[in-house]
Specification:
It is built from 6 helices and 10 strands; from the N terminus they run βββαββαβαααβαβββ. It is of the alpha/beta class. The protein starts with a strand and ends in an 8-residue tail after the last strand. Bound molecules: adenosine-5'-triphosphate and magnesium ion. Adenosine-5'-triphosphate is lined by residues 15, 21, 39, 41-47, 91.
Length: 227
């Protein structure tokens, strides 16, 4: 379908000896949409985002990101796709512990061969991280680590942001800041955003709301229907 940034069809994920975490899940996300995914702890939000980012493989089904079908790609091609097109905010941040906050944020630039000190400075300023720019992540707070992870995900102006509970450690002010940066990326670059959260209030920023429960995904009324 033209204009679709993410297409998921009949996706199944099973961990050994358990009922499927994702049981024939299908949906699609248009370019520039802001999707929130809700659901109780353990319903499969992280599992789904990891598969959308090509970090984990499904038992069956297909995932297409910007025209590339992920199961047809090898690990190198998946890494390349992530680097070029996806900004991932991990639930547990996944910061590199022996790099400073500044170097963690600049990491996507290093891999893509770009040099853009101004952009790193802008991110440090936007996310109020300048005071800890030269510090390693073991000496910063949970909220500072979360903001560092979000800044890193936005660094390369990705087409798609996959954000796993990106405001879980933040106060209201910083939650607003993170969401504002996502909304701004959407407005400026047409970035597509998929955000998993427990925070129902974040639904008001989204163009489409989905919920996961017992392996099934439902799309709320008023949102695009699944394909
Ligand atoms: N590597 C794994 N091996 C086996 N089971 C797993 C693995 N990872 C996750 N699970 C199980 O799959 C289910 C979904 O986990 P997942 O982390 O996707 O949930 P979640 O919706 O992100 O939860 P939370 O809101 O707590 O972050 C859980 O029951 C979990 O125990
Ligand atoms: Mg999770």
């Amino acid at each position: 379908m033209p204009g679709r940034m993410i297409e998921v069809h009949d996706l199944v994920k099973v961990y050994d000896g358990r009922p499927p975490v994702l049981n024939r899940v299908s949906f699609s996300v248009a370019m520039g949409e802001f999707v929130t995914i809700f659901g109780r702890s353990g319903c499969g939000k992280t599992t789904l985002l990891n598969m959308l980012g090509g970090l984990d493989r499904p038992a069956s089904g297909s995932i297409t990101i910007d025209g590339s079908e992920l199961t047809s790609l090898n690990e190198d091609q998946l890494a390349e796709l992530r680097l070029r097109k996806i900004g991932f905010v991990f639930q547990d941040f996944n910061l590199i512990m022996d790099l400073t906050v500044r170097d963690n944020i600049a990491l996507p630039l290093r891999f893509s061969g770009r040099k853009d000190k101004d952009r790193v400075d802008e991110m440090l300023r936007e996310f109020d991280l300048r005071h800890i720019a030269s510090v390693t992540p073991n000496r910063i707070s949970g909220g500072e680590a979360q903001r560092t992870a979000v800044a890193r995900a936005l660094m390369n102006e990705p087409k798609v942001i996959l954000a796993d509970e990106p405001t879980g450690n933040l106060d209201n002010e910083n939650t607003e800041k993170v969401i504002e940066m996502f909304v701004r990326a959407r407005e400026r670059f047409g970035t597509t955003i998929v955000l998993a959260t427990h925070d129902l209030s974040l639904g008001r920023y989204s163009t489409s709301k989905m919920s996961l429960d017992e392996g099934k995904l439902s799309v709320e009324v008023g949102s695009d229907p699944p394909v």
